[in-house]
Design brief:
Elements: E1 2-3, E2 9-11, H1 19-24, E3 36-43, H2 48-59, E4 65-73, H3 79-83, E5 91-96, H4 101-111, E6 116-121, H5 130-136, E7 143-145, H6 161-168
Parallel strand pairs: 1-6, 3-4, 3-6, 4-5
Antiparallel strand pairs: 2-7
């Protein structure tokens, strides 16, 4: 199983066009034989509205095959109850005793069925198509894994004022 980090896997094939051209090709609907991406989201005591927005943004991906594994890291209010309104067979909720983000991510890895992993946080709103673009960058033999965080504010980013105040100090 390969790991594609939160912003991350980049293929730069020799003499075969740019990685961005390869990524642009990842906008087609998924086919049954396409690789499966397991998105692992560790969560402990998240704000319900942020969690729901994060989960919906991950499930809004339509250009690649995926499963979303939300790992409830022993939250006092079980996350399965918060997420029961989402009916999507690609969503699985796994509950573990509280042990921190790393332990929760490891629990997600253990149940993942995908060929690739993507780690996201419970307050991450994913840009639609970003998982497919990352997957498109992994074609070939020269994969470079990296990670970064991009923060944008505005309607297209889906950030509300409470999020900005809490995380961006605004």
């Amino acid at each position: 199983m390969a790991i594609a980090s939160a912003v991350a896997a980049c293929e730069i094939p020799p003499n075969e066009g740019s990685a961005w051209e390869l990524a642009a090709a990842a906008t087609l609907p998924p086919r049954m034989g396409d690789p499966l991406v397991s998105i692992v989201m560790a969560a402990w005591r998240p704000r319900a509205d942020w969690l729901l927005r994060a989960v919906r943004s991950a499930l809004d991906e339509t250009a690649c095959r995926l499963e979303l594994i939300v790992v409830d890291d022993g939250s006092p209010e079980p996350l399965a109850a918060v997420l029961e309104e989402i009916e999507d067979e690609r969503l699985r909720v796994v509950t573990v005793e509280h042990g921190g983000a790393s332990r929760a991510r490891n629990a997600g890895i253990e149940v993942a069925r995908g060929d690739w992993l993507r780690f996201v946080d419970a307050d991450d709103v994913l840009e639609q198509g970003s998982t497919a673009r990352l997957l498109g960058l992994t074609a070939g033999d020269h994969v470079i894994a990296s990670s970064a965080t991009a923060v944008a504010r505005g309607a297209s980013a889906g950030l509300d004022d409470a999020f900005a105040a809490h995380w961006l100090g605004r």
